Amino acid sequence: MRIAMIGTGYVGLVSGACFSEFGVDVICVDKDEAKIEGLRQNRMPIYEPGLEALVADNVKAGRLSFTTDLASAVSQADAVFIAVGTPSRRGDGHADLSYVYAAAQEIARALTGYTVVVTKSTVPVGTGREVARIIRETRPDAQFDVVSNPEFLREGSAINDFMRPDRVVIGTETDAARQVMKQLYRVLYLIETPIVFTSLETSELIKYAANTFLATKITFINEIADLCEAVGADVHDVARGVGLDGRIGKKFLHPGPGYGGSCFPKDTLALVRTARDKGSPLRIIETVVAINDERKRRMADKIVAACGGSVKGKTVAVLGLTFKPNTDDMRDSPSLEIIPALLAKGARIRAYDPEGMEEARHMLSDVEFCDNAYDTLPGADVLAVLTEWNEFRALNMDRVKSLLKSPVVVDLRNIYSPEEMSAQGFSYSSIGRPTLPAGGS
Ligand SMILES: NC(=O)c1ccc[n+]([C@@H]2O[C@H](COP(=O)([O-])OP(=O)(O)OC[C@H]3O[C@@H](n4cnc5c(N)ncnc54)[C@H](O)[C@@H]3O)[C@@H](O)[C@H]2O)c1
């Protein structure tokens, strides 16, 4: 089997590398020449644990290569995966499908022999059929089937998620396409991964239903966390007590500053728009979107409150910029709301992130980027934890306290214990747990 992966971003590169690990011949295509050139020299365009070694191994084995030449990659392929971006369209929140449709046109021109064209990008219901229409219109003689195969990997654990997924969803309508997809995922069949075969529309909707459900679960526990603060309860105990119920489950019940990242914000918005257009509004998801937007903005107020009501002229040490740990992805990260709000209120920001600073430099202005976590602290009036990188869990708190101007910590990821922080002499606030005054020395 030979496949072409169109779009070598987080999903295309990880999927391409993993398919090659399954024994498939993979050509990853991108129109970004610098990205392809870097990959040819084994320079990863993204930070994803384990990716560099996986790519190097499979390139060496001759199963994985990189090119900007879409036509030649497609002409040799049994299946072509579309893994280009589908960001929010400016203004209305619909998924911007221009990259998908442009790729479909290019693919159509290069198809040779029977080929399965697979949408791996997250695309609204109806996109697969439109891709088929575009290909038919561009190349009436082409022999092809369109398949929907949404991707559920998470950045930070993407390789494991791809290799050992909870399920694989495949929307297909012909036996020939189904056989090709079965062959590609043969390794997962062998380890008895559930493979859900559906229609195109159902498969497309499954991806959005899954992401919006998870976003709802996060938003639910975030609101419960607010209530915990109001009534003096502890959200972690509530989450545990609730999550041990098998009908609910423990995952995605961790409170924080609001969901971000390259998927949940745009996918919730896109499904809301689709549902409205189809006359079947999803009021739960509309509310989730509104709550989450407001929540990110309110997190800045939490930091202001910890500073006694004003951050004007004060320095905020920020630890973590990416939307979650183990990625360099800054897309829709809460830090992009919180930091500008603090700057607007007159704060000075000194920030550090283990992998996200290169990207952050393009997205945040007036921020002093530091070399390590401790470097953010000298003279700061407050320390704010925005992303739960492991290295922040293990800070030497005596050193932190000695560097800060005042021992104030706002932990938006609940990585420290309120009692321990109080005993160590910090005024400590977190999410959905009691705020304790500095108790120790
Ligand atoms: N990032 C995630 O965690 C994740 C998880 C599941 C699904 N998805 C979905 O997967 C899709 C891709 O997401 P991503 O995060 O990998 O995007 P990305 O922006 O990281 O990568 C997209 C790549 O496609 C390339 N590209 C665009 N048009 C092209 C063309 N015509 N020919 C060749 N290359 C082209 C771009 O240069 C870019 O490198 C999106 O629909 C997203 O919603 C993402």
How would you describe this protein?
The chain has 441 residues and is of the alpha/beta class. The protein has helices at 10-21, 33-40, 51-60, 70-75, 98-110, 127-138, 158-163, 175-184, 186-190, 200-231, 235-243, 264-277, 283-306, 335-344, 357-363, 390-393, 397-403, 418-423; strands at residues 2-6, 25-29, 64-67, 79-82, 115-119, 144-148, 168-171, 195-198, 315-319, 348-352, 367-369, 382-385, 408-411, 427-429. Strands 3-2-1-4-5-6 form a six-stranded parallel β-sheet, with helices on both faces. The protein is elongated and about 75 Å long. The structure holds nicotinamide-adenine-dinucleotide. Nicotinamide-adenine-dinucleotide binds at residues 6-12, 29-32, 35, 70, 83-86, 99, 102-103, 106, 121-122, 151, 153, 155, 262-263.
Helices and strands in order, then pairings?
Blueprint: E1 2-6, H1 10-21, E2 25-29, H2 33-40, H3 51-60, E3 64-67, H4 70-75, E4 79-82, H5 98-110, E5 115-119, H6 127-138, E6 144-148, H7 158-163, E7 168-171, H8 175-184, H9 186-190, E8 195-198, H10 200-231, H11 235-243, H12 264-277, H13 283-306, E9 315-319, H14 335-344, E10 348-352, H15 357-363, E11 367-369, E12 382-385, H16 390-393, H17 397-403, E13 408-411, H18 418-423, E14 427-429
Parallel strand pairs: 1-2, 1-4, 2-3, 4-5, 5-6, 7-8, 9-10, 9-12, 10-11, 12-13, 13-14
Nicotinamide-adenine-dinucleotide (NAD) binds next to α1 and α5.
